[in-house]
């Protein structure tokens, strides 16, 4: 059994793809003889983030981080985020000559540029430096690997995402009591998610938004006919998602978008722009429509078979995702590389 400590700045009570991915990884990794523990913001003081007012930023004390790592005594360390915890753990590893892995999960340069006059090239340079010390930087899609390679990132490895098909399934659907068709968007309500591009569309039926965030109040005022349902989790999220007709994914900055797989597992097709994330999830499979004209994508998605969506999602398990993750980590642990190839 290999023990892996995952350091992450993203954790409860945040509701996002990074948190869902890490929790799903922890469960699935046990099948591959790996036990995962987490070093999270829990127990550290925190401050508000000016550009993310609904979130808190942990202020990790280096000595306490070192104590937690040494108490866990892991075989390997993985840094999941580039925040304060990620930086302190990176410094700990570098100073002690410890190999570690990282993952690129969020397009912070685009998020920051949308709020502050900081060029993306500066932020990408900082991220390049951060990940350069890792033995492997795990990336969720082939197209993102190609993009990051073009930006000068090295030592990249594929770590795909999966979906819990027992939680997200068509049978959970509830009657949303809204005129059909129902177009749904799920995620953080913030400028980088490009929700206004969806909400401003002239579409039949109803639009719903599941989630919360700094742009919520403004969008509620701007689009009074849209139903904002707030943040939903687990069974409630699955039930509302399965009750929709199309998942609309207007983001052009996400590195993957786990909610796309969650919708497909519920039998709900996807409408999105042809960008990284949707392009990798949907590709040419008949489970969604990618189009620069988002309205066309939404209307065309209504014709897609819900059974085809479910069948596609059943092939995207968290087991495959965990197998990839554990294989990358095993390769940096002394004496474990041979085991990885044998597995």
Overview of this structure, please?
- With 343 residues, the chain is α/β, with parallel strands linked by helices.
- It folds into two domains: 2-162 and 317-342, Rossmann fold, CATH 3.40.50; 170-313, Rossmann fold (3-Layer(aba) Sandwich), CATH 3.40.50.
- Helix content is 39%, strand content 18%.
- The protein has 15 helices and 14 strands.
- It has helices at residues 17-29, 62-72, 84-96, 108-113, 120-132, 142-150, 195-199, 216-222, 234-242, 258-265, 278-282, 294-301, 306-313, 318-330, 337-342, and strands at 2-7, 34-39, 46-49, 52-58, 76-79, 101-104, 136-139, 156-158, 182-186, 206-210, 227-230, 246-249, 270-272, 288-290.
- The strands form three sheets. It has a six-stranded parallel beta sheet with strand order 2-1-5-6-7-8, sandwiched between helices. The chain has a six-stranded parallel beta sheet with strand order 11-10-9-12-13-14, with helices on both faces. It has a two-stranded antiparallel sheet with strand order 3-4.
- α1 packs across α14 (318-330) and α10 (258-265) packs across α13.
- The longest helix is centred in the first third of the chain and has 13 residues, at 17-29.
- The protein is globular.
- Mean pLDDT is 92; it is low at 337-343.
């Amino acid at each position: 059994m290999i023990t892996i400590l995952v350091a992450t700045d993203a954790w409860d009570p945040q509701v996002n793809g990074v948190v869902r991915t890490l929790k799903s990884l922890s469960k699935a990794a046990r099948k591959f003889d790996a036990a995962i523990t987490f070093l999270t913001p829990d127990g550290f003081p925190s401050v508000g983030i000016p550009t993310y007012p609904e979130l808190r930023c942990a202020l990790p004390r280096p000595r306490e981080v070192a104590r937690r790592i040494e108490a866990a005594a892991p075989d390997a360390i993985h840094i999941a985020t580039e925040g304060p915890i990620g930086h302190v753990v990176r410094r700990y590893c570098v100073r002690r000559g410890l190999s570690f892995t990282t993952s690129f999960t969020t397009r912070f340069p685009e998020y920051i540029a949308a709020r502050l006059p900081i060029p993306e090239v500066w932020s990408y340079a900082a991220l390049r430096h951060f990940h350069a010390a890792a033995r492997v930087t795990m990336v969720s899609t082939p197209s993102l690997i190609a993009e990051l390679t073009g930006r000068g990132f090295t030592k990249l490895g594929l770590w795909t995402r999966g979906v819990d098909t027992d939680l997200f399934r068509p049978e959970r659907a509830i009657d949303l009591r809204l005129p059909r068709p129902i177009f749904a968007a799920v995620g953080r309500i913030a400028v980088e998610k490009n929700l206004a591009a969806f909400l401003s569309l002239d579409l039949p039926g109803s639009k719903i938004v599941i989630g919360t965030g700094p742009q919520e109040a403004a969008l509620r005022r701007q689009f009074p006919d849209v139903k904002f349902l707030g943040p939903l989790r687990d069974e409630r999220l699955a039930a509302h998602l399965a009750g929709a007709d199309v998942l609309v994914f207007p983001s052009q900055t996400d590195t993957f978008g786990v909610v796309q797989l969650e919708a497909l597992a519920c039998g709900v097709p996807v409408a999105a722009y042809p960008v990284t994330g949707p392009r990798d999830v949907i590709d040419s499979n008949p489970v969604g429509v990618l189009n620069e004209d988002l309205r066309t994508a939404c209307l065309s998605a209504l014709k897609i078979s819900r059974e085809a969506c479910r069948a596609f999602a059943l092939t995207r398990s968290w087991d495959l995702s965990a197998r990839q993750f554990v294989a990358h980590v095993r390769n940096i642990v002394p004496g474990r590389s041979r085991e990885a190839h044998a597995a």
